[in-house]
């Protein structure tokens, strides 16, 4: 009798054991190891020379100018990408929300960049953004508009990287929002029309709240993703010019060989920032999100 | 003040014509029920009044004014949708208030109106709740309150009770009738249920395939159906209709008009048959009688016969209806009425 009950208690744990093993091995262990490394002055060549130094790595992080530079770059990048993507994808989704052959075609077009590797995209944009021979300046010149130095100037480099990231990601989010818009019952809009609601008011009071779960999802996912941006920076600018596009993950990457303990500590800080941001989002916004 | 008129109105969905050259006047302050089988165009008609799906041609008048170019929100109509179409993201209060805010009603007045209405429909305690936490009946009341609070001169309702359980439906029917009396507005109520139509309407408009079959008060609709379709649509079980012979005319009688007896009487319609089925419903019993000339449903208040028994079905002259070859009613005053009666009598007693 008791044996049977023990079996019943254990069974669910047995069932999830394989998945839990995976999580321990590939999620928890690396995180714990990251934390462990961050407390050491770690020597990759000779493990014996590694030294436990407590929170010295963290103290160093917060006293170094280049950390703050990459942090502010990352924040600026994230804000730019998130705000632009949300606004543009919402605009496009509202435009594409009405079902028609043409719209399906446009939607497929917008989605295509998402299928292509960001590395290829970054390379193509790298050429297009070349100040003297590139396509973008050629077009600007053709229309008599002022040209830009794009990636070559520390003033416009970060903005250029933001542009590419938005261009690449937007199709996916448009797709999510179009699906959300199309799932709203048309009779709700008819009721609003009978309630004498203007177009703008209908959008604010009905459309936006109805798609708020999707908008919130995009906000959280994009913030986390943008904070961890790496590939675009690596391919397009290598953090330059003059650290103008150096972001946190790229900063970690730069320090990986010279000082792995310091890099790990930065990784821990990055994790903490993302966790804090997500927590703040949920605290501030989840009440405004309407789940069916 | 707010009668509704359709003038040669047609409506097509991508070339598929649903309603063609329809003329109809709905009287001011009356409870008018649009009834007909599913897909006959009732909803289409209602949505044309609301302006949600404007007509393809012809004109719709509300209160004598052509509203073809007026937006739905400015026609002075309110509508209760079949699925209620409550705004799911808003609280009950916001739902009811939304139209008032859009119409720039001042806050103090708004609050008074919302509270008054919500008390009237029994939603006062639920004002701050989200619709997803309400029962079906309560959501229905939200939809009603939202329509009422705007004090419209025309109330449109599209099968508003069809999602409720049977008991609640009967209760809501009575409440709607009372509501109509209290408000005195023009009610246009759509249903496919003829019992609902009979119990609520001042005037029934019966439609089939986009064409109005008859427009009359319930008792007239029941006693003097203007064609075969009306005769068989209204009433349960439907009217018995049979062929009268070579002329192609038809005769008909309601199940409760027939008398069952063991011996043949001298009614103009009298046939011998066998009771095939018997349904005992409590206050009445419904028999299906199988005879040489067809099956007849007979409704009796007394339960005197058993299945398998041989009986005579008799119908007195006053309770017989006749329809011509074109299925239109043949009136008592028409000359062919007498001929039909003779033909029937000849067949029964020949
Ligand atoms: N938006 C639409 N597009 C195409 N056909 C429609 C549309 N709405 C209704 N119809 C057609 O019009 C006819 C009448 O529909 P409706 O008015 O909804 O009938 P009901 O009497 O059941 O309310 C049906 O044949 C239906 O298929
Ligand atoms: Mg309908």
From TrEMBL, chain A:
TM helices/strands, residue ranges: 12-37, 75-97, 104-128, 157-181, 202-227, 260-282
The keyword Transport belongs to this UniProt entry's keyword annotation: yes
Main location group: membrane
Keyword Membrane part of the UniProt annotation: yes
Keywords: Cell membrane, Membrane, Transmembrane, Transmembrane helix, Transport
Stored InterPro entries: ABC_transporter_permease, MetI-like, MetI-like_sf
Any single biological process term in GO: transmembrane transport
Domain of life, source organism: Bacteria
ABC transmembrane type-1 domain ranges (all copies): 71-281
Compartments (UniProt record): Cell membrane
Protein family (similarity comment): Belongs to the binding-protein-dependent transport system permease family.
PANTHER family tied to this protein: ABC TRANSPORTER PERMEASE PROTEIN (PTHR30193), INNER MEMBRANE ABC TRANSPORTER PERMEASE PROTEIN YCJO (PTHR30193:SF37)
Name of protein: Sugar ABC transporter permease
Organism: Paenibacillus arenilitoris
From TrEMBL, chain B:
Any one GO cellular component localisation term in the record: ATP-binding cassette (ABC) transporter complex, substrate-binding subunit-containing
Example of a GO MF term: ATP hydrolysis activity
Source superkingdom: Bacteria
GO biological process, one term: carbohydrate transport
SUPFAM superfamilies, per database record: MOP-like, P-loop containing nucleoside triphosphate hydrolases
Annotated ranges, domain ABC transporter: 4-234
Protein name as annotated: ABC transporter ATP-binding protein
Organism for this UniProt entry: Paenibacillus arenilitoris
UniProt lineage: Bacteria, Bacillati, Bacillota, Bacilli, Bacillales
